Amino acid sequence: MTIRLPAVLLLAVCATAGAQDLATAFDSEEIAPGIHVLYGADGKFGGGNMALLVGDDEIVLIDDSMEPLAPLLIERVTGIAGRPVDFVINTHVHGDHAGGNAALAETGTTVVAHDNIRKRLIVDPSPAGGAGGLPVITFGDGISFHVNGMEAKVFHVPTAHTDGDSAIEFRGANVIHTGDLWFHDLFPFIDLNSGGSVDGYIAGQQKIIAMANDDTKIIPGHGPVAGRAELKRDTAMLIDSRERIKALFDQGMSEDAIVAANPLAIYHDDYNWQFITTERIARTLVRDLAGE
Question: How far is CA 105 from CA 5, 87, 144, 168, 192, in A?
Fold first, then answer.
C-alpha cells in the first residue's frame, strides 16, 4: 500500500478522536541553557517535538510543526526568543515536522534541510505549507551552526526514517535532537515509500547511542525527552522485532501469515499506538525484508 505524505500527516493527526485533538497551544521546557523543547499543550497533537536555540546571536528552530498550527508556533517561539526565528532546520520531509516552513519563511526565516528534502518538496510542496516553504539552504552529509557560543552540528542519516533524515547534536550542551529517528516508547514509523529502511533506521539509532553518554538529553521526534538508556531499549526492541519477523519470513511464510502468527505480541502492550500498530510495524518489517 502506497502512503502519500499528506495522508501520513492526516493519519497522525486524526489517529484518535480526530481533528479536535490538534493542539491549540504549545508548551515548552528549557532542558539546557538556551535550548527549549516545544510540543503540543495539554497532551494534544502538535506535530513532532521541536527544539529552539535562543541566545544573543541567531535564533534557530529545529522543525516547525504543521501548517494549521504555524501562527500559534510563531507566536510561541517569538515569545520565548523575543524576536523572530533566523533559521529553521527540517529533520525530514513529513508535514508534521516541516509544515510551518512557508509561514516562517514569510517572517524572514531561512529554511535549511537535506538535499533530498528539497528534491521531494519540489515535486510536492504541500508538506512544507506550499512552495514558499522550500529549503533555500541545503546540505549533503551535514552542516554546522556556530551561534550563541555553541555548535549545533547537523548530520545526515541515510535511508533511515526517510532518505533525507538529519539529527542535531548541540555540542557543549550534551543535547541531541533525533527527529523521527526515535519514537520514544512507540513502534517507529519507517517510511519505506520515502526512502527509509529498517537497517538504516537501526544504524541511525546506534550512531546516536554511540555519540551519547549517560547524561545526554535526547529529544525524540515523538514522545518525552529521555536519555541514552531509553534509546538503547527502544533500539533493542526494533532489532529483536526484525529478527522475530525474519525467522518467519525465512520459512517462506506470507505477510498475512506472519501477521496472523503475531510474533511481536511481546511488545504490543508497551509499544502499540494508533498510528503504528503492532500489525503495521510487522507489515513494515516484512515489506523491508522483501525489498518492497
Answer: 21, 9, 20, 21, 29
Check: CB of residue 118 under 8 Å from CB of residue 135.
yes
Q: How many domains does the chain have?
A: 1
The secondary element (H helix, E strand) that includes residue 267 is helix 265-271
> Considering just the CA atoms, what is the radius of gyration of the chain in Å?
18
Q: Could you report the per-residue pLDDT of 207-257, keeping only the tens digit for each?
A: 999 999 999 999 999 999 999 999 999 999 999 999 999 999 999 999 999
Cα torsion through 24, 30, 31, 32, rounded to 10:
150
Is residue 144 domain-resident?
Answer: yes
Q: Which domain holds residue 214?
A: 5-227
Place of cell 497532551: 43
Is 115 within the bounds of a domain? Answer: yes
Residue at 167: amino acid letter: A
Is residue 127 situated within a structural domain? yes
- Residue 208 belongs to domain with CATH number: 3.60.15.10
Task: For residue range 255-278, list pLDDT tens digits in order.
Answer: 999 999 999 999 999 999 999 999
The three grid cell numbers given for residue 289, joined into one nine-digit string = 525484508
In a domain, 266, yes or no: no
Kindly give the residue spans of alpha helices, DSSP state H, lying in 101-163.
101-106, 115-123
Q: What does pTM read for this prediction?
A: 0.93
- The grid coordinates of residue 154 equal 547537523
